[in-house]
């Protein structure tokens, strides 16, 4: 029988852990506990709840207002891992600098980042957005239309990314991707990037931006870009969306081509 | 005289024409002829002068050569000769002086022409015997250069003839420009006399050899002084390599026959000796224990982590000496010469414990056989002298106890003093950004990852510093920061109080357990005190670390706060423990009284029974194990300390294995199948906790100091622990830790550690001294049993082992009437030293200020001087364009005279500058002056003078020079 005094001696350790990792506990609470509770109570999925909120609080046809509504919902009500306003600003800046004509987005989720990218695109540019999940894709579709982007600007492809990427050239007639944004499954970052390299869609100067490379993190992806030598890359350090204390990064890659 | 001047001017025209493209053999030959004549004349003049013997000889030989080749020279193309001459000049210039080279490169042709022209003028002057000395010097100088040429290519003497003449002038200037050349020249002059004495008749060409020697010496000097030259690194390297090659090549060639061999041998030996020295240095480095390990860690983790290991190594050294003292003077003599185990009760396990005395659990708690061994105080006998050596055991025991503490004090204080000397005197606050810019890199980092971290941390520190600067101007957030700092301290205090109470509670409980008897309780309950102390010592610092994030200090300051807090925590824990021990000692002493009484009754009863049973039988022998004995509080204290050390060590190692190793393994291998990046994200790898480890080490040492008197085995245990922990921690750091995110240099904190160590040393000797002085030793165990106090052993030794007068002297010396004045004197001395050091410090600060202001003033002055010089130059230039016409009207003879005057002036100035080490480039220009002033055709003059700043016959031109020379010299 361990005496109570020894148990008490572990109190500082407990306190330390709680204080040090408080952001993770908060995140766990918001992203898992609250979500499953609401799922049970409302019978709707998290994305559907978000859509309802946006529908009631945003001005249709105004992408900024839609994004703002999303941000409020995600920071105040529940948690969805969108790109978020802070990292979104970096993304906006990169898009402005690059002004790409063909953009590929992997992982539309519920359309937040799609709207964000589409809003920053120059005239005549086209965004291909890939989403694997049927229900999420339906909501993303609605959100995109709500923001006022038509089929010519944004094309939503409902399929897993590893199926779509090899067929991009044949089915969608793409020659070159100017900009790729990755925000789907973190495990798929590295294989999808290799697939993109293999497909020959990346030209010299194509930019690839990958979100959440530090948390939840894509170590294989980072290792690949570090070792392949095909890219000029850097990681924009930031915090996780809608959270202050968790460090995260967004990788920015510029394809240099095979030397 | 007029003829000479006529001829020179004629020659000048010739040369000018030649360089312009006209090649006239006849004229050049004429020129040669003229020169020859001049030379012969001068030689005649020289012959009278004894001092110049050497130069004369050289000249004579040269003249001989010239005569031989006079015929051949006619056939040679004049142009080719010129070219060669130029080449020589160029190559030589490269070797000799950068400035010279630059000059040649910029205005190659112009320079050559000028030089030749100067040559002419000079010759004219030499006729008058004006600049005799200078010229000879130039010759000598030039001679050494000539020899180089000879080495490189043997022939081409004809061309050399010309070049030599040209070069003479140039050498002169080289000498004046760089002070080193000047000194070397002086050396040459000195050597001259000795060379004359040791003229070797057997040598074929002693002149050449001497020249070679000179050249070699010169090169050596060049190599030595290369570091201080204001050249680019590339040039330095090239020069170094060339010079070294030259020295290598020709050093062996010096000397002939026997001398040569000897010389070669000497050189070889010197090289061997140097190599040996280098190897010896390497060997010495290799002999420093763990040096390479620590260096490797340093390169990976920066100097703060390495400083911990260096501290650990230092500690190990001290413990080795403590161990040597106790082991060699206490444990080994007792084991070898003292009475063997089982001979007397204090050296025997009691009958009641005999059954379990060899159990591992008992031994692990340092009971049983471990308790009744040399490891603890109680085992030692109070016999005055043991063995055939008559070793004074009790005295030795006492003196070793005192000696270890005294030695520790000495070492710690000495190290502190040395560190204080080493530590820089810069204040971090006044030039924050400069400090950050120039001193933030840790040059010992050799690992790219650490370098990245360091880079990032420097960047962030800059960002933070800028933000701080802005905030300090804004000045509105300071209240929040202050509040947070106060809050953090409050929380830490709460934490300290909580831990103190917990330990107090545990100690009280353990006393209750002790009264109940330990066997009725579980292992957990028996080891509660140690466990709780170790756990609190481990976890509270982590909590402090988290709390200190509130305060937003610079990491170095934060580290010091952290250290201070942990220090307070450990100190509180330790003192709680000691207070508990004191209570226990008192309990034991109560028990002792009862036992003492019981023993007398027991002895009496034993005696009575034996007497009553058998009055005539042999005296009864009782087994020592059966004799009842006192509790022996000293051994108990020693045991407690040993247990504490053991549990502390175990906790440290287990923490290391679980907290670092297991975590690293989990992070590393679970990362393949985990949903987030474990390495970069949440658990990550651990960082090396410098402050916690250092404090652990310090407190561990404190416990050693406290307990070593009652358990002589403690230093040995500690050495073992430190040895293991050196290897274990080195391995753990390299294998499971990542470099700190904010790598910072540890240079500042070294003395902080030392100061803490000193405090701990003081605090740990306090209770030890208290127990020694106030508590009487146990009556039946230990070396001091039977005495009233432990230090009585000194008095006893004084009385019985020393002559009577000595003890008399000692007793009179320990008389308060003598001791008090002595203490007073010491206090006065300390006060005096303190005040002097303070005044020195102030003087230092003053001097620094003065230096700074002087620096600024110098800067200003230089700026002003440069400005003025520039203005003067402008003015002169303007004047030059205005008076271009006037010059043409000046007659040649007047100019000549003036030029002579100038020569005198400049030469005298040159002499003056020669003494000066730092020779400014100004004289170079001056030297160039006579050249421009020489009687030359105007057309030529105009075409080549790039910056006609100094013009002949212009009265103003002396002014800028007057200004420039002093201003530059002040540099």
Q: Shape of chain B, please? A: extended
Q: List segments of chain A where confidence is low: pLDDT < 50 over at least 5 consecutive residues.
A: none
Give the beta-strand count of chain A. 7
What proportion of the residues of chain B form beta strands (DSSP E)? under 5%
Low-confidence stretches of chain B: 1-30, 43-61, 67-73, 75-80, 90-117, 119-202, 906-971
Keywords (chain B): Membrane, Transmembrane, Transmembrane helix
Organism (chain B): Dicentrarchus labrax (European seabass)
Family (chain B): Belongs to the TMC family.
InterPro entries (chain B): TMC, TMC_dom
Descriptive key words:
heterodimer, A: 259 residues, alpha/beta, 7 strands, 54% helix, globular, B: 971 residues, mainly alpha, disordered N terminus, disordered C terminus, Transmembrane channel-like protein (chain B), membrane (chain B)
How would you describe this structure to a colleague?
The complex is a heterodimer of chains A (259) and B (971). Chain A has helices at 4-9, 11-20, 22-42, 46-57, 63-77, 84-98, 112-120, 134-147, 161-172, 189-199, 213-217, 219-228, and strands at 102-106, 126-131, 154-158, 177-182, 202-210, 231-239, 247-255. Chain A has 259 residues and is α/β, with parallel strands linked by helices. The termini of chain A are far apart. In chain B, α5 crosses α6, α20 packs antiparallel against α22 and α24 (633-670) runs parallel beside α26 (714-736). Residues 1-30, 43-61, 67-73, 75-80, 90-117, 119-202 and 906-971 of chain B have low confidence and may be disordered. Chain B contains 35 helices and two strands. The interface between A and B is medium-sized, with 24 and 30 residues.
């Amino acid at each position: 029988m361990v005496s109570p005094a020894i148990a008490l001696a572990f109190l500082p350790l407990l306190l330390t852990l709680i204080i040090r990792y408080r952001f993770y506990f908060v995140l766990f609470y918001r992203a898992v506990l609250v979500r499953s509770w609401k799922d049970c109570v409302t019978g709707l999925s998290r994305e559907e709840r978000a859509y309802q909120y946006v529908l009631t609080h945003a001005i249709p046809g105004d992408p900024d207002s839609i994004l703002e509504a999303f941000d409020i919902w995600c920071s105040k009500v529940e948690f969805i891992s969108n790109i978020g306003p802070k990292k979104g600003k970096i993304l906006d800046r990169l898009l402005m600098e690059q002004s790409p004509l063909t953009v590929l987005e992997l992982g539309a989720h519920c359309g937040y980042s799609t709207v964000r990218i589409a809003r920053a695109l120059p005239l005549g540019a086209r965004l291909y957005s890939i989403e694997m999940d049927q229900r999420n894709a339906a909501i993303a579709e609605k959100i995109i239309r709500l923001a006022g982007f038509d089929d010519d600007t944004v094309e939503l492809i409902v399929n897993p990314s590893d199926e779509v990427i090899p067929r991009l050239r044949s089915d969608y007639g793409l020659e070159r991707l100017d900009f790729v944004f990755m925000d789907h499954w973190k495990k798929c970052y590295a294989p999808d990037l290799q697939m993109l390299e293999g497909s020959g869609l990346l030209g010299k100067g194509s930019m690839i931006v990958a979100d959440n490379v530090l948390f939840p993190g894509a170590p294989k992806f980072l290792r690949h870009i570090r070792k392949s030598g095909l890219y000029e890359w850097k990681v924009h350090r930031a915090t996780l969306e809608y959270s202050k204390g968790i460090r995260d990064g967004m990788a920015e890659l510029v394809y240099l081509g095979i030397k | 005289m007029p003829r000479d001047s006529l001829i020179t001017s004629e020659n000048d025209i010739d040369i000018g024409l030649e360089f312009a493209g006209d090649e006239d053999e006849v004229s050049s030959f004429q020129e040669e002829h003229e020169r020859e004549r001049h030379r012969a004349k001068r030689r005649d003049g020289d012959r009278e002068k004894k001092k110049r013997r050497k130069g004369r000889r050289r000249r004579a030989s040269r003249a001989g050569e010239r005569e031989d080749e006079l015929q051949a020279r006619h056939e040679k193309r004049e142009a080719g000769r010129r070219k060669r001459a130029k080449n020589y000049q160029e190559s030589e210039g490269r070797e000799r002086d950068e400035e010279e080279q630059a000059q040649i490169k910029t205005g190659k042709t112009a320079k050559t022409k000028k030089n030749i022209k100067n040559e002419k003028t000079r010759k004219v002057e030499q006729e008058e015997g004006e600049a005799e000395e200078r010229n000879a010097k130039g010759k000598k100088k030039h001679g050494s250069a000539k020899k180089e040429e000879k080495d490189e290519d043997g022939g081409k003497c004809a061309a050399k003839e010309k070049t030599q003449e040209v070069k003479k002038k140039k050498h002169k200037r080289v000498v004046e420009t760089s002070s080193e050349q000047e000194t070397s020249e002086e050396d040459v002059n000195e050597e001259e006399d000795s060379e004359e004495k040791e003229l070797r008749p057997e040598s074929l060409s002693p002149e050449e050899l001497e020249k070679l020697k000179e050249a070699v010496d010169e090169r050596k000097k060049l190599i030595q002084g290369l570091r201080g030259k204001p050249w680019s690194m590339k040039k330095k390297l090239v020069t170094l390599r060339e010079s070294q090659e030259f020295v290598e090549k020709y050093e062996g060639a010096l000397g002939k026959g026997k001398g040569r061999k000897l010389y070669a041998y000497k050189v070889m030996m010197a090289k061997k000796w140097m190599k040996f020295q280098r190897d010896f240095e390497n060997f010495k480095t290799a002999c420093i224990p763990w040096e390479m390990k620590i260096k490797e860690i340093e390169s990976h983790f920066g100097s703060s982590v390495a400083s911990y290991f260096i501290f650990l190594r230092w500690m190990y050294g001290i413990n080795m000496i403590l161990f040597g003292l106790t082991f060699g003077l206490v444990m080994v003599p007792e084991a070898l010469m003292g009475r063997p185990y089982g001979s007397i009760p204090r050296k025997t396990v009691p009958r009641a414990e005999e059954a379990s005395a060899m159990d591992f659990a008992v031994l692990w708690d340092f009971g049983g056989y471990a308790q009744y061994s040399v490891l603890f105080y109680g085992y030692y006998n109070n016999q005055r002298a043991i063995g055939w050596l008559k070793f004074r055991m009790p005295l030795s025991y006492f003196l070793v106890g005192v000696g270890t503490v005294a030695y520790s004090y000495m070492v710690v204080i000495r190290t502190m003093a040395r560190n204080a000397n080493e530590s820089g005197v810069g204040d971090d606050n006044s030039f924050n950004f400069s400090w950050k810019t120039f001193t933030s890199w840790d040059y010992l980092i050799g690992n790219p990852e650490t370098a990245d971290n360091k880079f990032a941390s420097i960047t962030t520190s800059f960002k933070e510093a800028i933000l701080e600067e802005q905030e300090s101007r804004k000045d509105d957030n300071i209240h929040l920061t202050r509040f947070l700092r106060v809050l953090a301290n409050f929380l830490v205090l709460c934490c300290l109080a909580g831990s103190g109470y917990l330990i107090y509670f545990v100690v009280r409980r353990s006393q209750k357990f002790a009264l109940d008897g330990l066997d009725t309780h579980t292992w957990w309950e028996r080891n509660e005190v140690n466990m709780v102390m170790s756990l609190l010592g481990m976890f509270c610092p982590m909590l402090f670390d988290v709390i200190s994030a509130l305060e937003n200090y610079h990491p170095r300051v934060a580290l010091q706060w952290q250290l201070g807090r942990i220090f307070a925590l450990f100190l509180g824990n330790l003192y709680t423990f000691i207070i508990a021990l004191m209570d226990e000692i008192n309990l034991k002493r109560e028990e002792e009284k009862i036992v003492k009484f019981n023993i007398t009754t027991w002895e009496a009863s034993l005696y009575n029974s034996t007497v009553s049973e058998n009055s005539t039988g042999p005296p009864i022998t009782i087994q020592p194990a059966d004799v009842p004995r006192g509790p022996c509080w000293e051994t108990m204290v020693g045991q407690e300390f040993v247990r504490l050390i053991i549990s502390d060590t175990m906790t440290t190692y287990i923490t290391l294995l679980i907290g670092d190793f297991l975590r690293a393994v989990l992070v590393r291998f679970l990362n393949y199948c985990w949903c987030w990046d474990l390495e970069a994200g949440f658990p990550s790898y651990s960082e090396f906790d410098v402050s916690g480890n250092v404090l652990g080490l310090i407190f561990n040492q404190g416990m050693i100091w406290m307990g070593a008197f009652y358990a002589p085995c403690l230093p040995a245990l500690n050495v073992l622990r430190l040895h293991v922990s050196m290897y274990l921690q080195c391995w753990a750091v390299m294998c499971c830790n990542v470099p700190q995110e904010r790598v910072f240099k540890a240079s500042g904190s070294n003395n902080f550690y030392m100061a803490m160590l000193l405090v701990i040393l003081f605090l740990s000797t306090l209770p030890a001294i208290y127990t020694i002085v106030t508590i009487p030793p146990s009556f039946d165990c230990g070396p001091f049993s039977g005495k009233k106090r432990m230090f009585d052993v000194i008095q006893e030794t004084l009385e019985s082992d020393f002559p009577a007068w000595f003890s008399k002297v000692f007793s009179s010396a320990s008389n308060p009437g003598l001791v008090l004045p002595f203490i007073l004197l010491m206090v006065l001395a300390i006060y005096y030293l303190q005040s002097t050091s303070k005044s020195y410090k102030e003087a230092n600060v003053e001097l620094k200020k003065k230096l700074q202001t002087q620096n600024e003033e110098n800067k200003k002055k230089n700026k002003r001087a440069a400005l003025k010089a520039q203005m003067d130059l402008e003015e002169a230039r303007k004047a030059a364009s205005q008076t271009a016409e006037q010059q043409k009207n000046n007659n040649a003879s007047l100019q000549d005279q003036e030029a002579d005057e100038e020569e005198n002036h400049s030469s005298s100035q040159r002499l003056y500058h020669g003494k000066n080490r730092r020779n400014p480039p100004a004289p170079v220009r001056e030297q160039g002056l006579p050249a421009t002033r020489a009687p030359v055709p105007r057309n030529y003059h105009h075409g080549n003078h790039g910056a006609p700043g100094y013009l002949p016959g212009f009265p103003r031109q002396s002014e800028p020079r007057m200004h420039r020379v002093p201003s530059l010299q002040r540099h």
